[in-house]
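Pilot study result, target chain (354 residues):
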Amino acid sequence: MQGNGRAVIAGLGTALPPSAVQSELWDNYFSQHYANGGRRGLAKRIFEHSGVRTRQAAVSPLLEDVSDWSTERRMRRYQVEAVPLGKEAVGRALTEAGIGADELGLFAVCSCTGYATPGLDILLARDLGMSPQVQRLFIGHMGCYAALPGLGTVADFVTARGKPALLLCAELTSLHIQPPGSRVDIQQIVSHALFSDAAVAVVLKPGDSSGYEVSDVAALTDTTTADHMTWDVTDLGFRMGLSPQVPDVLSVHVRTLVQELLGRNGLTIDDVDGWAVHPGGPRILDVVQERLGLTDDQLAPSREVLSTYGNCSSPTVLLVLDELRKRTDPPQRAVMLAFGPGLTLYGVLLTLPE
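Predicted structure:
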């Protein structure tokens, strides 16, 4: 079956584990986690300047310390926690889109925080009653930017096949708290201060629905900086490597990416009235704002998501999109931006029908 050349976001659903206050996480867990080796003062400052006020944890360190768990134990817990979270997000997205799970032609899942076979794509397709003929795609270990290539792939399927499709981004970063160690590791402190858990699902449909059309997708990867952001599988979970030079690399490339994406669609930065920028951290947002010449109001949705939800890896940029969608007067043209290992920058242009 051939599509009509349009893929429209018809439904978006979120699911969040219990929330905790950043200051309480510091006072009641991380202040002791970093009690040795002269790290407490540094870690406290990083937590206080993270831009995060509250965040979620499927496995809260206030209740359960997983820092000495084996990777096998963490992966088993991932299945226990991620399946109901993903089911909730998918169910909400399908309800908003007004379709049944059995109508989906493609079900794609992005996750870099847990692996198992059968995976979330199989288990959720079974539990939610998707067709045995549904095509499935699992997108793993792409990190914070995964939602955007995922969205582009799902949109391509919808336009080519003329069938609805669904993308789920589900991350449980709380399962990867690392042991304290014996030395100062600023990269681990930063990741412990920022990262959070969430699941967000998006339904795309062909045709003339009233939601945002996925108009174009652009990518730019600087492989000379591949070691600046890493996510290594260790015997004690997955370990984040996060160079302080990441914002500098983004500063070099982000305007080029955005101008290319917009230029080939006959647009400029001034033509965009909505920005969903992945809030990787305060410095990331500062750099994007400066390089693109954006106002505080234009970056407010991204900063609010960082403050309220933390950096949830792949679902985060979709949480920002949800903030834009909920506005009384949603933007007519929106650009989504996300960044991750590679270093990779991704952009998506969304447009509302006239």
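One observation from the pilot: The mean pLDDT is 95. A full batch analysis is planned for the follow-on phase.
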